[in-house]
Specification:
423 residues, mainly alpha, 78% helix, 3% strand
């Protein structure tokens, strides 16, 4: 009989690896979508729809998956989820029309729902004081986005884009078997059909705090997914790089967005979800301010004649800022889920499903909006302008809902503790 501690870390390790593979699949169109766009002659908006389609299903299914995880346990739900995607992944390689890719993308998108299952499954193996770290480690699976950017372009160049879904289908099947072998079931971790009803689970939708956390997550995760899907093409069109170099540089945003999530969990355990999330949003706002400025040339008429100046980020500066924002978003993804484990210890699955759905929907909507804005304005940096506005709204919401009430509460406690002098 394996010890409890061994089971804990075996579950986390196997779940994290499985989630990495699922995220690789979920982000697949970020790479193979580029040759597909060229072969089908898609515009920017159509490309945004193509890459975002798997994210739609992966987002919408998160709530029911969270409910099933609470009721039946994470192990069986995770295993069935992975098996259900194998055949649709393979079918992508046989697609020839735009609608073929959209339909298969919807089925493949189920892989994105693995996050909600795994986050609740891993958290329940640990005491509350260590759940932030456990969930942060599991979230490292977000690096699947970077792995796809490193692996898929090489496969595309060597064998063509159709080989990518074929390789990924086999990988998913193998990973499902490995996951089942190295994970365990604890009946105490599931609510059971007789203890909790669907209506009781859905009561979380009435909690305004859940919606606020959903808004935060739509930035740190939805923004991460949206930009991960968009950045490879952005480097190609903005800086003229080939697909391999563009994907490699795009991975500079995706890698910290996954790897450092564990550090974000540790920070959240130590300093609290509120403080960490507040600073994450501010760092994101500053980064997006610089990213939003389009490549600009302007002429000044001087006494010696006109002088033209160029203002804009070169590829190096752009990558450094994206890397910084990737670190910020990684920490934020962990801190938002620390809110959930602190406030909703008995229905993590449902609440994480709601919040995860909101984050995933952000990842679905943003690439479409990015493409539409480029078609509308002709400015590639309009994607970052949109993100800047969203982050600003979220900061204001957080200030009025959390920062100001907490400051007032702290001031009242300080005033009550101050002795009144006698005259």
């Amino acid at each position: 009989m394996a010890s409890e501690k061994f089971k804990q870390w075996s579950v986390v390790a196997a779940s994290t690896t499985a989630f990495t593979v699922c995220f690789m699949v979920w982000m697949m169109f970020a790479v193979i979508g580029i040759p597909i766009k060229q072969s089908l002659g898609l515009n920017e908006t159509q490309f945004g729809i193509l890459v975002a389609m798997p994210v739609l299903t992966g987002s919408l299914i998160r709530l029911p998956l969270g409910m099933w995880t609470d009721r039946f346990g994470g192990r069986i739900v995770f295993f069935i989820l992975m098996l259900s995607t194998v055949f649709p992944i393979w079918l992508i390689s046989q697609a020839t029309e735009f609608w073929h890719f959209l339909v298969t993308g919807l089925f493949v998108g189920v892989a994105g729902g693995s996050f909600t299952v795994g986050i609740a499954y891993c958290a329940r193996w640990f005491p509350r004081s260590r759940q932030g770290l456990a969930m942060g480690i599991f979230g490292v699976g977000n690096t699947g986005a970077a792995v796809t950017k490193l692996v898929a372009p090489t496969i595309v160049v060597a064998y063509g884009w159709t080989m990518v879904p074929q390789v990924y289908a086999v990988l998913m099947l193998v990973m499902a078997g490995i996951f089942w072998l190295f994970t365990y079931t604890d009946e105490e971790h599931s609510a059971g059909a007789s203890h909790v009803t669907v209506k009781e689970q859905l009561m979380a939708l009435k909690d305004p705090a859940v919606w606020r956390y959903s808004q935060y997550y739509s930035i740190v995760f939805g923004g991460y997914v949206g930009l991960s899907l968009w950045m490879t093409k952005y480097y190609i069109t903005e800086y003229g790089f080939d697909i391999q170099l563009a994907a490699l540089l795009a991975a500079a945003f995706s890698i910290p967005g996954g790897l450092l999530r564990a550090i974000g969990g540790w920070f959240s355990d130590k300093y609290g979800a509120h403080s960490v999330t507040w600073w994450v949003l501010w760092v994101g706002l500053v980064c997006l301010f610089f990213l939003s400025y389009p490549q600009t040339e302007f002429t000044i008429h001087t006494i010696s004649g006109p002088k033209t100046f160029h203002v804009g980020l070169n590829a190096t500066a752009f990558t450094i800022i994206m890397f910084t924002m990737g670190i910020s978003f990684a920490i934020g993804k962990a801190s938002v889920f620390k809110y959930i484990s602190d406030d909703y210890p008995h229905n993590i699955g449902v609440v994480s499903g709601i919040v995860g759905l909101a984050g995933g929907m952000g990842g679905f909507v943003l690439p479409i909006l990015f493409g539409a804005l480029v078609d509308l304005t002709g400015l590639r940096s309009s994607a970052f302008m949109l993100m800047f506005g969203i982050v600003w709204v979220s900061l204001m919401w957080m200030y009025f809902a959390e920062v100001r009430p907490m400051s007032a509460q702290h001031a009242s406690k300080h005033q009550a503790a101050t002795p009144v002098p006698f005259n």
